[in-house]
Amino acid sequence: MAPLDAKTLRADFPILKRLVRGKPLVYLDNAATTQKPRQVIRALTDFYEKHNANVHRGVHTLSEEATSMAEATRTKLAAFVGAPKPATLIFTRNATESINLVAHAWGRKFLKTGDIVLLTEMEHHSNIVPWQLLAAERGIRLEFIPVLTDGTLNMDKAKELLAKGPKLFSFVAISNAIGTVNPVAELIKLGKEAAATVHVDACQWAPHRPIDVKAWGADFVSFSAHKMLGPTGIGVLWGREELLEAMDPFLGGGDMISRVTLEKSTWNELPYKFEAGTPNFADQAAFGPALDYLSAIGLDAVSAHEHALAEKARAILEAEGMTVLGPKDPAKRSGVVSFNVTGLHPHDVGTAFDLEGVAVRVGHHCCQPLMNKLQCGGTARASFYLYNDESDLEGFARALRRTIEFFKAKPKAGVR
Amino acid sequence: MEGDAELQELYREVLLDYFRSAARKGRCDPADMRAHGVNPVCGDELEITAELKDGKVSKLRYSGHGCVISQASAAMMAEAIEGAEISKAKALVAAFKKMMLENGAVSALPPELEHVASLEGVRKFPLRVKCATLGWNTVVQGFEAIKS
Fold first, then answer.
1. Nearest CA in chain B to A403
2. Residue A175: CA atoms inside 13 Å, Cβ hemisphere, count?
């Protein structure tokens, strides 16, 4: 694995040249969305300038070009996640929609009153609320694998809860809020041994670490393009072919049908059965170059690079006596560092950092149950990506020291 | 430090003093008026309780967790409204909102809201305005609940 050269890569990201409040931008909000390289921006512009036409049923040249560009991304994506068939990759609006698709099209068909859906306390609201809605409608029961104080899953409890025979087990691969890397392969194996259908929320995994859906052996995997250099408005759902075939459609309308009469309709083949209406084909086309970009660097190099930066950021925080959430073991941590400045609300931290040009996210990170469990209302979160470098770490350290000095924040008890 | 001017502009000394003040933190028990406010952006919660006597807010307390801006602003609200007639209290809330939400002149603030001028800098941070208004919106909810 060749280490990546962030300094060179940075030149591909025009936004990194801008100033924020008169200071060079230090962008550490990558877990929320990543910046886009020129290659992706150019692909989007090129599409609109040279190829734009609605996809599928057109027989004219532009429509053919647009269709083949949008579909080329699906093929690249299949290779990117190790899926034998591109048709098993469904494009949605975002990962939230991917999970809602599973809840509606699979859950409504295959879950009955009293069935258990097993989640974890670490989930993003997008992997809780769709199941709560379904629970209210169908009388299914939700169970949650508890999170330990170090921000990892209680694996003993996981096994106990799986022994209850949940019909579906849906969990997050890497926590967006605190950066815990879950034992994905082990959890999938346990889920399958318990005969559960397994869904993996891979939003924080797909941009950073290789996915091999065949090796994983899960049933559904979801993630989104905008967190991996791609455009906004594109979510992905991979599903096992026989499950996707057995499911009813999600939304009804154009593109998803095979034949429509006034009495009834039959469904189109995969993946179009789940892609009703005009798809977001321009962004779909521009997502391809993002996948090429990541493949050229190699995700192992990406995760090694950002992990090293995140560990240095953690060391800076701990040296100042600040609280860092999540596991102590670096092997269980991602490129996300979630922290609190003692005695200071995350929003004040976020504003003070912003005045230094440093973009961090603050609040509950759409994980209120996890925040409640860890007994903090929220955190400030720095999340690193392939274009971050030592200069960003310096900016981070400068913003932190300035915040501590200005608000006279003290180290947490027991730290000198 | 060079950049500190901007921090000082937002987090003025008066504001930090109100943030640290415990003068009206707590709860009235029993209370004649009760209101619970939430800032959906950050999930911060604020509880306001008050005793009412002869058409006046005779005692007002607030509790909950929040950022410097929301806590300081709640403390200023509590100070201004405690002791005021309810009609006067409503007028004070309106004057505060005019300054904060409609870019009203700080010089137009009534004398009871003298220190509210220190929240002026928040207007440059649109995402933080909700922090400053939490306490004031919550007390309005309380007044409306008495009416009904």
1. B7
2. 31
Chain centroid to Cα A105, Å, comes to 21
Is the model's pTM score more than 0.90?
A: yes
Structural domain includes residue A416: no
Instruction: Among A295, A320, A348, identify where a domain stops.
Output: A295
In this structure, are residues A150 and A326 in contact, taking their beta carbons and an 8 Å threshold?
Answer: yes
| A18 and A155 co-located in one domain | no
> Can you give the length of chain B in residues?
148
Nearest CA in chain A to B68: A348
* Contact between A351 and B65 using a beta-carbon 8 Å cutoff: no
pLDDT digits (tens, 9 = 90+) for A10-42: 999 999 999 998 999 999 999 999 999 999 999
A199 within a domain of the structure (yes/no): yes
Q: Dump pLDDT digits (tens) for B26-46.
A: 999 999 999 999 987 777 889
Domain boundary among A265, A295, A325: A295
3-class SS of residue A235: strand
Domain containing residue A323: CATH number: 3.90.1150.10
pLDDT of residue B47: 96
Task: Check: CB of residue A310 under 8 Å from CB of residue A334.
Answer: yes
Query: Does A179 fall in a domain?
Result: yes
Q: In angstroms, what CA-CA distances link B43 with A94, A380, B64, B143?
A: 24, 14, 11, 23
Which of A347, A371, A406 has the CB atom closest to B128's CB atom? A347
Same domain, A231 and A367: no
Same domain, A131 and A241: yes
Smallest CA–CA distance, residue B10 to chain A, in Å, is 10
Q: Does B119 touch chain A (CB under 8 A)?
A: no
Which residues in chain A have Cβ-Cβ distances shorter than 8 Å to B68? Answer: 344-345, 348, 407
Report pLDDT digits (tens) over A74-92.
999 999 999 999 999 999 9
The total domain count for chain A is 2
The predicted-structure confidence for B82-103, as pLDDT tens digits, reads as follows 999 999 999 999 999 999 999 9
CA distance to A40, A242, A295, B83, B87, per residue, from B56 (Å): 63, 70, 69, 6, 9
Comparing CB atoms, the residue among A355, A363, A377 nearest residue B6 is A355
Average pLDDT for residues A110-115, to the nearest whole number? 97
Q: Inter-chain contact A23–B3, Cβ cutoff 8 Å? A: yes
Q: Which domain holds residue A304?
A: 6-30+299-407
Could you tell me the fold of the domain covering B4-147? Sufe protein. Chain: A (3.90.1010)
Instruction: List the single residue in B4, B7, B67 with the smallest CB-CB distance to A347.
Output: B67
Is the model's pLDDT at A411 over the cut of 90? Answer: no
The pair of structure tokens assigned to A92 is 């949605």
A369 to chain B nearest CA, in Å?
12
* Contact between A347 and B4 using a beta-carbon 8 Å cutoff: no
- CA gap A391, A386 in Å, rounded: 13
For chain B, the C-alpha Rg in angstroms (whole number) is 15
- How many interface pairs between A and B have CB atoms less than 8 angstroms apart? 54
Which CATH number covers residue A93? Answer: 3.40.640.10
Q: How does residue A415 score in pLDDT terms, banded at 50, 70 and 90?
A: very low
* pLDDT for B5: 85
Is B4–A364 a contact, with Cβ atoms under 8 angstroms apart? no
Closest CB to A351: pick one of B10, B65, B70.
B10
What confidence score (pLDDT) does residue B127 get? 86
Residues A57 and A179 placed together within one structural domain of the fold: yes
Q: Where are the domains of chain B?
A: 4-147
